[in-house]
Design a protein that fits this description.
N-(1-d-carboxylethyl)-l-norvaline Dehydrogenase, domain 2, 13 helices, 8 strands, 296 residues, 10% strand, Rossmann fold, three-stranded mixed sheet, 2 domains, mainly alpha
């Protein structure tokens, strides 16, 4: 996302992107494209008027906003968070920033890493209408292929993203069960995958391929497509909201249980599709599949 944005800023002759990260070296490709690294988030906020954040959990966003609001003057600055956080977190962040004269857009994104690299993400944006209009040129056909305007209430976009991940994680759970069924019955995972692609299309076929290719447990040191820790966090948010509203998500609960067991068995270097490994174990098969890595 940041690399696409920096290339766009260069193309229109704008000032370069100012960026920071816990591991600053991860921004070296940005630096090579002309972006400016800084050591900390406060410097990012001081140096810019529009600030994008992408973080792994709610507590980190809270901490960043606390840093920003501790500065003497953030009047007129716009903060856009592209992470998946609880709707109440988005609401609290918006209120904290408003007190200091800044504004907030909750803008979680839909799409895995290849879609981000291609600039084809879907942005679900909620916040002040004029601010969404203001930043749209930096998003539409730059970092994303579509903006879904969710209105003024920042909780709405967070809720849509969490709802969307019910599908993603639920589909993975269902496909894992089907592929284990195919292996145990002798039907074969290849035939099952061909059927999934023909009947349900390339998206669900890609979820199946994350299992059959072994990408659910990539080689150590290779980042997963949708880290199991992040998927687990998203599932917990959805389940908590469902309980609060008096409904249930049993498929998601099963998936979270299996992701938790996978993390306990094999650590954190797993994709969310690692529900497959536990489904295999529960059926009497090895946790590791033929194409995955074979150890922790």
């Amino acid at each position: 996302m940041a690399l696409n944005l920096q290339k766009h800023l260069t193309a229109i002759g704008s000032s370069p992107l100012v960026y920071s990260n816990r591991t600053l070296a991860r921004g070296d490709p940005l630096k090579a494209e002309g972006a400016s690294p800084v050591d900390d988030f406060k410097t990012v906020v001081k140096s810019t008027d529009i600030i994008f954040t992408m973080i792994s959990d709610d507590s980190i966003l809270d901490a960043l906003v606390e840093e920003a609001t501790s500065l003497e003057n953030i009047q007129g600055k716009l903060f856009i968070d592209t992470s998946t956080v609880h709707p109440s977190t988005s609401s609290a962040v918006a209120k904290a920033l408003k007190v200091k004269g800044a504004e907030f857009i909750a803008s979680p994104v839909f799409g895995a890493s290849p879609m981000a690299a291609a600039g084809k993400l879907i942005f679900a944006m909620a916040g002040p209408h004029e601010q969404i209009t203001r930043v749209s040129p930096f998003i539409q056909d730059v970092m994303g292929r579509q903006i879904i305007n969710m209105g003024a209430d920042v909780q709405n976009s967070s809720l849509l993203k969490i709802s969307g991940n019910i599908f993603v994680i639920g589909f993975q759970e269902l496909i894992a069960e089907a592929q284990v069924f195919a292996e145990k019955t002798g039907l074969g995972t290849g035939r099952m995958e061909e059927f999934i692609g023909s009947m349900f299309g390339p998206v669900l076929e890609s979820y199946s391929k994350r299992m059959t290719s072994g990408a659910w447990a990539p080689p150590l040191g290779t980042p997963p497509g949708f880290a199991v820790s992040l998927a687990s966090k998203d599932a917990r948010h959805a389940l908590a909201i469902a309980e609060e509203k008096g409904t249930q998500l049993p498929t998601l609960a099963t998936a979270l249980n299996r992701m938790t067991k996978a993390r306990e068995y094999a650590g954190e270097s797993l994709d969310s599709a690692s529900v497959y490994g536990i489904a295999r174990m529960e059926a009497g098969l090895p946790f590791w599949s033929e194409n995955s890595r074979q150890s922790n």
